[in-house]
Amino acid sequence: MAIISLSRILAHWADEQPDRIVLSHEGTEISWATFDARTNRLARAYQALGVKQDDFVTISLPNGIEFFEACFATWKAGATPQPVSARLPKLERDQIVEVGAPALVVGVPAGEYPQTACIPLGYSPDPSLPDTQLPEAIATSFKAMTSGGSTGRPKLIVSKQPAATDPDIPLLEIPQKGCMLIPGPLYHNGPFLWAMQALFKGCTVVVTTRFDPEETLRLIEKYSVDVVYTVPTMMRRIWALPEETRTKYNLSSLKALWHLAAPCPAWLKECFIEWLGPEVIWELYGGTEGQGSTTIQGTEWLKHKGSVGRPVEACEMKIVGEQGETLPPREVGEVFIRPLSGAGTTYRYIGAEAKAIEGGWESLGDMGWMDEDGYLYLSDRLSDMVIVGGANVYPAEVEAAIEAYPGVRSSAVIGLPDDDMGARLHAVIDRPDGAVDEASMLAHLSERLVRYKIPKTFEYTAEAVRDDAGKVRRKALREARIQAS
Questions:
Q1: Model confidence over 117-140: pLDDT tens digits?
Q2: Which CATH number do you get for residue 392?
Q3: Backbone torsions φ then ψ of 50, nearest 5 degrees
């Protein structure tokens, strides 16, 4: 099969399987033919609102069929979808809109951005618009994802992959015309990528509004799901179900359970391997920037326990020491990645500058080592970023919100171990006047941060948490609190 534009991929599969379910969301199902026609009409509505070739369309919609319709209508208009959380506080979304300068914002009240076209959740295009095929269009970039960034200001990670696909290329163990389950938030790169690649391959995609452990198992059985996307927090919650609940569902259809976005404890991975079989469990390590990744199947992992796999064919990796030297096997250093296609070929930033070393090597901010067979093992985060339930949280962003509270001199946000979420956010707040009512602080932060970025615990001190240069030793703060617990 030749490469097909994303503006034509729905029509391709609608011709082959017009009445088959393309999307299922909490009891609502839609066929390929209907989905293709509806997104044709919606694309024309977007064009009438001013969306042009290679524009960004900011999509602020919750998980559901409407989210997918917005993305495919954007591709059919020749533009690039730029998803954000539908629960973002307006202040945070304002910054993303300012950075991305989209032609349209979907999922917000009309007039929310006076200089930009806006349409609300539940928008219906004019029924008089045709639902026939549009002229073919291929956006230069098929996605533009959001990242908080180490500065606390958002940046866009714009893929350099055009909006086109070859459904015959093997990818992520996704079979053509199979079934994918996505229980994660679609505005995150992982769930977005897995869901869309499944659709590009003609699969039915089942999506939930939010993750529920037993519902996940029920849906795998009901739809004979081939592939499911998870993060370790989801795996922990599934494993915490009573054994009679966890084992009563038929999961024999499952060909691949992917887990990524955060480290998976070895004990938990071994439990899933024993339960579902080593050939079913897959792990991927990589970044939204797409410079490269590693993958590993459970069968390999049993021979290289703790590894996140070997680099895929499209990239190379090395471990770098403090002096910039390449380290030999089994020595810990910073993990660097380079695509074989060359530096800067997979993405570009808007709102930030890429950090690379000589030769185009880039780091995702992780420490690790490689064995003699080229398998990568991660040891720790180099950066201050905290991974909460698979979501990246940059302390600088949270600290900026805390320091906007009256009387706060400075703050330091750290991640402490959490059996459920992998890490929980803890804030050390320098406020000479003492502690504040927690409800007041939570109300303040809720206006500025999405829920998962709000610390779970707070402590107050009258001593400076930063030195004269404004630096904070988060590692030391974290270790002291772990030892004291």
A1: 999 999 999 999 999 999 999 999
A2: 3.30.300.30
A3: 110, 5
Question: What are the φ/ψ torsions at residue 391 (nearest 5 degrees)?
Answer: -105, 135
> Please, are residues 283 and 258 in contact by the beta-carbon 8 Å criterion?
yes
Domain stops at, among 276, 295, 315: 276
Cα–Cα distance for residue pair 257/272, rounded to 1 Å = 9
Q: Which residue, among 425, 349, 354, 333, has the nearest Cα to 387 in the 3D structure? A: 425
373: domain CATH number is 2.30.38.10
Q: What b/e readout covers 113-149, taking b as 16+ CB neighbours within 10 angstroms?
A: beebbbbeeebebeeeeebeebeebbbebbbbbbbbb
| Co-location of 208 and 333 in the same domain | no
Helix (H, G, I), strand (E, B) or coil at 183: coil
pLDDT of residue 152: 62
Question: Which of 328, 354, 381 is the last residue in one of the domains?
Answer: 381
In angstroms, the CA 34 to CA 378 distance is 45
Query: Within this chain, do residues 206 and 308 fall inside the same structural domain, yes or no?
Result: no
Cα separation of 50 and 117, whole Å? 8
CA distances from 312 to 246, 285, 316, 374 (A): 33, 10, 8, 11
pLDDT per position as a tens digit, 2-45: 899 999 999 999 999 999 999 999 999 999 999 999 999 999 99
Domain span including residue 377: 281-381
> pTM for the whole thing?
0.87
In the chain, how many domains are there?
A: 3
> For residues 188 and 174, what is the distance between their CA atoms, to the nearest angstrom?
19
Give the whole-angstrom CA distance, residue 400 versus residue 448: 10
* Portion of the chain with pLDDT greater than 70, in percent: 97
Question: Judging by DSSP bridges, how do beta strands 333-339 and 361-370 pair with one another?
Answer: antiparallel
